């Protein structure tokens, strides 16, 4: 079987699985199921296969997370690698050009020195004219090479600046959640590591809150995945609008978000969390196609402050426990670690 025929077979299998499991056939989703059908990504094939065997649903949020974990980052890594290679090549080209110019300058210097020696000796008018003509020619040639060098350096400088800007954009993109436009899990992990290190070194407070969209599955099941995506973008927008300065809001995964608040005590963090919660609650979810108001949404939030005994995992776990305490207490509320509801959690639907 040719590669083309094999690819077509994989494509048919991918679409068949998507149809069977009720997955919307978007290009992004197709990419995931093609990888499953072809087996080209072992981790994805295993995760998809296990989910099919367990007869678990494929929510759009789950598929978005899967794609971000296994596909977006891989493409970004390749882009970063190529851009870095191009940048290195451009810089090396500048160095080579400078080395060439250095050799040209040394040759010109030797020409001047030789001419100086000849001027000290008695020369005939004809020899003097020839010497002067040679000096003029060498000087003109050096001027031309210098101008060429300046033009090359200007072009190279512009090329390097463009490549650096592209590299910065790509790196920024690797840390941004595609759906909501706010920092992603990778960015959150990096920022939390940095914030914990800073808090330890400076002896300043550090808080973390985890938030979860209430009854998110119901929105997906009732109105479809596109509305679910709209809900995620709405919450992401509220976080971006209400978390400023040194604080970092990120999509943690699925319908869960997280906010890192350096140099912020527990009471102040609870205030910020309630500000975000009220902002989300005040929004009305509108169906874009018809303009119909589908209702409002709410989020539950758990807040914890870094303790001397915490590592990164325990810090997140304590904030998560507070989150589940908020969900058990009725949702649409903020629970911090000093509240009585903040106890080791059990599963909350």
Write the layout of secondary structure elements.
Elements: H1 3-21, H2 27-38, H3 42-53, H4 60-120, H5 125-174, H6 185-202, E1 206-213, H7 216-223, H8 225-242, E2 248-253, E3 256-262, H9 266-282, E4 284-286, E5 293-296, E6 299-305, H10 312-328, E7 334-336
Parallel strand pairs: 6-7
Antiparallel strand pairs: 1-3, 1-6, 2-3, 4-5
CATH topology of the largest domain: Alpha-Beta Plaits
Percent in strands: 5-15%
Q: What letter string, H or E per element, gives the SSE order?
A: HHHHHHEHHEEHEEEHE
The overall average pLDDT, rounded, is: 81
Please give a structural write-up:
The protein has 349 residues and is α+β, with helices and mostly antiparallel strands. It contains 10 helices and 7 strands. It has helices at residues 3-21, 27-38, 42-53, 60-120, 125-174, 185-202, 216-223, 225-242, 266-282, 312-328; strands at residues 206-213, 248-253, 256-262, 284-286, 293-296, 299-305, 334-336. The strands form 2 sheets. A 5-stranded mixed sheet has the order 2-3-1-6-7, sandwiched between helices. The longest helix has 61 residues, at 60-120. It starts with a helix and ends in a 13-residue tail after the last strand.
How would you summarize what this structure contains?
By secondary structure, the chain is α+β, with helices and mostly antiparallel strands. The chain is built from ten helices and seven strands.
């Amino acid at each position: 079987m040719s590669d083309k025929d094999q690819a077509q077979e994989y494509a048919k299998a991918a679409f068949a699985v998507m149809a069977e499991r009720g997955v919307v056939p978007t290009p992004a989703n197709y990419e995931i199921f093609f990888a499953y059908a072809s087996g080209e990504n072992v981790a994805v094939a295993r995760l998809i296969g296990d989910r099919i065997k367990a007869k678990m649903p494929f929510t759009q949020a789950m598929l978005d997370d899967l794609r971000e974990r296994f596909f977006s980052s891989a493409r970004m890594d390749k882009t970063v690698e190529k851009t870095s290679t191009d940048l290195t090549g451009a810089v090396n080209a500048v160095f080579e050009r400078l080395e060439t110019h250095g050799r040209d300058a040394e040759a010109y210097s030797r020409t001047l020195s030789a001419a100086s020696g000849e001027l000290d000796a008695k020369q005939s008018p004809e020899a003097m004219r020839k010497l002067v003509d040679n000096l003029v020619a060498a000087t003109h040639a050096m001027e031309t090479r210098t101008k060429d060098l300046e033009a090359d350096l200007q072009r190279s400088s512009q090329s390097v600046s463009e490549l650096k800007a592209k590299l910065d954009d790509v790196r920024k993109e690797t840390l941004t959640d595609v759906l909501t436009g706010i920092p992603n899990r990778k960015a959150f992990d990096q920022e939390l590591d940095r914030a914990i290190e800073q808090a330890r070194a400076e002896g300043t407070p550090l808080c973390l809150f985890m938030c979860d969209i209430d009854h998110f599955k119901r929105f997906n099941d009732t109105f479809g995945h596109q509305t679910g995506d709209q809900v995620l973008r709405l919450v992401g927008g509220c976080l971006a609008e209400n978390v400023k300065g040194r604080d970092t809001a990120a999509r943690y995964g699925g319908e869960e978000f997280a906010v890192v608040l350096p140099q912020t005590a527990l009471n102040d963090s609870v205030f910020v969390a309630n500000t975000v919660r009220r902002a989300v609650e005040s929004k009305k979810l509108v169906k874009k196609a018809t303009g119909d108001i589908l209702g409002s949404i709410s989020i539950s939030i758990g807040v914890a402050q870094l303790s001397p005994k915490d590592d990164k995992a325990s810090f997140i776990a304590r904030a998560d426990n507070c989150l589940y305490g908020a969900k058990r207490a009725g949702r649409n509320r903020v629970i911090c670690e000093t509240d009585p509801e903040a106890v080791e959690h059990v599963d909350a639907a």
